[in-house]
Amino acid sequence: MSTVAAVSLAACLAIGPAATAFAAPVVAEASPSASESADAKTLRIATAGFVDTFNPFISIYLTPTNIIRYVYESLVQNDAEDGSPTEGLAEKWEASPDGMTWTFTLHEGMKWSDDEPITSADVKYTYESMMNDPMLGTANGNLVANFESVETPDDLTVVINLKTPQAPNPGTEIPVLPEHIWSEVDDPTTFTNDADVVGSGPYTLESYSANQSITLKANPNFWRGAPKIDGIQYIYYTNSDAQIQALRAGEVDLVTGLTDTQMTALEGEEGITTHAGTGRRFTSLSVNAGAETPEGVAYGTGSPALKEPAVREAIRLGIDQESLLKNVLGGYGAPATSFIPIAFEKWHLPDDDEAIVSFDPDAAMAKLDDAGWVAGADGIREKDGNRLSIRLLADAEDIVEMSASEYLVPWMADIGVELKLETTDSDTISDRTAVSDYDMYFSGWSVNPDPDYQLGINLCSSRPDAEGNGATSQDGYCNPEFDALYAEQHSELDEAKRAEIVHDMLRMHYEDVAQITLWYGQSLEAYRSDRFTGFTTQPADNGIIANQAGYWGYYTVEPVVDEASSAAEQSGPGAALWIGLGVLVVAAGVVAIVIVRRRKTAGDRE
Amino acid sequence: MTDTITPVNAEVHDEKLAEASPTRSSFLSYFGTKLGGALISLVMVVLLGFFAFRVLPGDPVRRIAQERPMSPEQIAELRRQYGLDKPVTQQFLDYLVNIFSGNLGESYVYRTPVSELIGQYLGPTLLLTGTSAIIAIALGLWLGQRAAWRSGSLFDKIATGTSLTLWSVPTFWLALILLMIFGGTLRWFPTGGMVSPGVEPGTFDYVVDVARHMVLPVVTMVAVVFAQYLMVMRASLLEEKSSDYLTTARAKGLRDDLVRRRHAVPNALLPTVTLVFMHIGGLVAGAVTVETVFSWPGLGKLTYEAISGPDMPLLQGTFVVFSTIIIVMNLIADLIYRQLDPRVRRA
């Protein structure tokens, strides 16, 4: 048969039911459907995130923990400007000169969303629950690990006594829970906390329908004042392309985590604004400079060549970061120095620091020459009969890693290093890197406003054992001088002095080349600017809307109230659609019934 | 062949044709053999369900710890909660004891019993695949018999060509194209989910809303699978067409149309009944792709999320449930086939 006929019938069949539905002239803009007549004051966000639980003691996945930020205020909040500590439940705080005791004073007259007063007893209850029951410390146990005791001299005062001096504010990042609700719960470790939640943040959790939607409503009692919108709805889309289509169709108002291609595709769409925000993530190449257990026992299969600082430095000099940024990220990112992203300017190692080097293949080759690596017949260097061959693990499903690898391999060949690309899946990478079975791999972290944790996982004592169990390490780095500086910054209460020490640490880490930080990727987001405006980013200067270390993103947002807001609604299908659909369903039913009847009566027919 | 279809096991048919005796005892032995085979398959599935997912790479706790500030104490606590601190033999024994008491374990991610999760997600999957199956069967059988009766005609060529073309189209691709055109651009149908947030269950609006959400996924599934029903019906009727009894019927003076409807089609329908049962299992499993693209909250999507997790107890659970559905459906197909077609029994 003719291909044309086949294809055209295929098309007819594929759109047949839809065509039936619209065979009748569409009765223009009849009543819009439930989903299209979106409430002008409800922000709808597309999500694909896992939800383990909304119990703040236990919840560890990104989506619920982000939502919990909106539902429960902490003692101290990360501000929108640059993530520094700012007022939360506490209006002021003071550390004792030795850094051992922190005293917080709460705002007067704060109320939970159910109108009960918020007092220091709630803070004490929350912290002590986490300190006393390891199960309740599942999510944030590390934040109270240094707490000796919590005292409440009066309703507005909280005193935290620490085991060791601490510069990072101990009141951040811990959601404070209402004692009058949680102390009534039979077993707080299994409480799901997913409906009619009583909270203290700008929104409270109203309902949760697994894999369908999460609904938040504005909290009129929020101490900074109620938000300007009624609520937020997270709607589930498993597929990221479906999320883009939902935004285009006006079914959701905000989509995050776009790829650069998706971003480009959405640019110029009417009513949609794309936003590339400075995120809090870094992407790096982790370099195996010889893994050792905390006891100093070497393990793993790391290339001996990478133990030579000159080789690691040469590899960094041979990588053109600017070119990767432009070609792999489509320009959506910033050049990186070390593992504290530029979003946290105070701590970030500046680009003009004397330690920072830029792309220089000649210098790279000179370093390798000096170290005694001589080019062999095929251009790959050798020393003492060993080829300078390095394995690079990459996730075959990660477009960014795959495309970056395509640049890295020839660049390395240019300086006489053979880069063997080993592509596999992320689970295998995770398993292999845990036991140090790698030379280099793509890595990255989302960093919190206070650098203490990220610095802490670069200590000698943070290295896991040979099976990958125990502590968490960023790259298996160990340098006693770095450790000494860590202890110093950890108890330095003068922020300017502390920042200087942090810079020294980052410089040391950079010069030791435990990792090659490739870039700080931007977070790509898009929203219906014909419906909402006034998102506050973090950092305030072109930061991110979603996934902040705070609740600013959706707190200040307000509806756009003009004729444009109806643009997303007017194209909703009309009554004709329902009639058409009804016809379709009835027709299918009739066909089925006829077939069944024929079969039943087949025997009677002669 | 696309991913929503399980291949028909040709051997099964041969085997059935080989078995042949109308007596009661032979039926029992036939039934016994089939049931025994199904039970052995089930046991294999249960064992595989444990071991296959143990050899897979990926440690859920490590994966979580990689992206979160966590102390070694917290990581150890998570291992304890997940039961990963026990030796593998102990984990296996727990798994066996649990599975025979209907307990499929607790999901790492959702922190709920797996059986409860599967119960929640089974309904939407049955709604979606059930509707798709009914439409695909009706459309396929109807087109198939028309095509066969006038084999070689333009209608036959178009119907067969179209169905085979759609059959060879990747489901994922077709689903995305439909989603982009009818969801994103034309905005006729929702781009995902089963129901709009805020629509009250049990109301008329709810029914309408779910129906709207069903259109694109159902069209996708139907488009991809109706070919198999069409082809079997067509082949089956072509075989009947030359039979003597049709000549007799015609000789009685019956109109051609009546000969087709009353004599040929009912007989040609028999082999397709088996096929239907064999494919229902496959259809449920095949929902993974369609549910993932259209964010349909069913078992397929649950499986996809279990893989992304990775959520071992949930993967085990969905694997065991899917496999059981397929095994049971195949068993029913085997038994029905023999009961339905007297020619097979007496041959």
Kindly state the percentage of residues in helix of chain B: over 70%
Give me the count of strands of chain B.
Answer: 0
Beta content of chain B comes to: under 5%
Strand percentage of chain A lies at 15-25%
> Separation of termini of chain B?
33 Å
Please count the beta strands of chain A (DSSP E, at least 2 residues each): 25
Level of helix content of chain A? 25-40%
Helix count, DSSP H or I runs of 4 or more residues of chain B: 14
Radius of gyration of chain B, whole Å: 24 Å
Largest binding interface between chains: A-B, 88 and 90 residues
Q: Which shape of chain A, going by the Cα principal axes? A: globular
Structural description of this entry:
The complex is a heterodimer of chains A (606) and B (347). Chain A is an alpha+beta fold. Chain A is 30% helix and 20% strand. In chain A, helix 1 (3-21) packs across helix 17 and helix 8 (309-317) packs antiparallel against helix 10. The radius of gyration of chain A is 29 Å and the shape is globular. With 347 residues, chain B is an all-alpha fold. Chain B has 14 helices and no strands. At the A-B interface, helix 1, helix 4, strand 10, helix 6 and helix 12 of A face helix 3, helix 4, helix 6, helix 7 and helix 8 of B.
